[in-house]
């Protein structure tokens, strides 16, 4: 079984398309990190005099600075960002400020942060998985796993594999384990490169122990301000990475399931792109947001790979009289989906003989 898995893994890793995509995506990641956010990123010196509990004196100083010309200019975000954060997380602001979700409901602040800390490196690291991490992993998974079964049918070797002494179940198991190993390696590779890039750009990873609610990448972008989870930046980074990996593995299982019912790799790629691409195009690009389709956006496959939405707000759902958090309900649904597609993959490969 081990040798068979190694053989299947080697087949995945020897595809030229995988290395071409890998090279292109790594170049894109480096260019974005270096050119997309040009200028000095390290703002430690600006935050140091104000770190700690937010006092009335700090709030007044922030208000005075925010009146200055050029406050909102992009090249001065490091210099003036500290004053915006002092104003935003002051006790008065957190008490009186009201924010609404997409449905018009008031968002509850269950974890209150009233301290100021420099943690911008973690904002950039967390943003990677929500944006480029999803794109990179989808491309690598599609190119690497879509041909796993479809290629066997295209080459006419599927019947031979079924009749081998290894048996149909062992063949599927070897392909599945090799595919999951490939997904894990891709996540480790892209995450490691991203971590290295921003560590070199900032010169530090300051703010690892600060609350996730206070972590923001952009001048006014605090995605986790209303998060109900008491996690530090580094703790959430670990949770985010594990969740992103789990989502990538689920997507890998779906790609394999589609591959086993497709006659060619191209057909498998097109179907999988439609599965994940149509919801993204509809909800994120075209802003298609009717009430009846909200559940499609909230429970789409890409949500788990992006991670952010799962930890942003204290949303809950009533299921058969039980109150389940959005995170728990989503994980249950994805677990059921993963089990279903895995069993479906085994059954399809064992029973389907001919593709037209």
Structural commentary:
It is built from 15 helices and four strands. The protein is mainly alpha-helical and 356 residues long. The strands form two sheets. The protein has a two-stranded antiparallel sheet. Strands 3-4 form a two-stranded antiparallel sheet. The protein is elongated.
Layout of secondary structure:
Blueprint: H1 2-13, H2 16-35, H3 44-47, E1 52-53, H4 56-66, H5 77-88, H6 91-96, E2 115-116, H7 120-145, H8 147-155, H9 158-162, H10 167-202, H11 233-260, H12 265-285, H13 294-298, H14 301-306, E3 316-319, E4 322-325, H15 326-351
Antiparallel strand pairs: 1-2, 3-4
Quick structural summary:
This protein is mainly α and 356 residues long.
Residue share in helix? 55-70%
Measured on Cα atoms, how large is the radius of gyration? 24 Å
Oligomer designation:
single chain
Approximately what portion of the residues adopt beta-strand conformation?
under 5%
Main β sheet profile: 2 strands, antiparallel
Q: Pairing-aware structural class of the strands and helices?
A: mainly alpha
Biggest sheet strand line-up: 1-2
**DSSP strand tally:** 4
What is the residue-averaged pLDDT? Answer: 80
How large is the count of helical segments? Answer: 15
Can you tell me the residue ranges where pLDDT is under 50 for at least 5 consecutive residues? none
H/E series: HHHEHHHEHHHHHHHHEEH
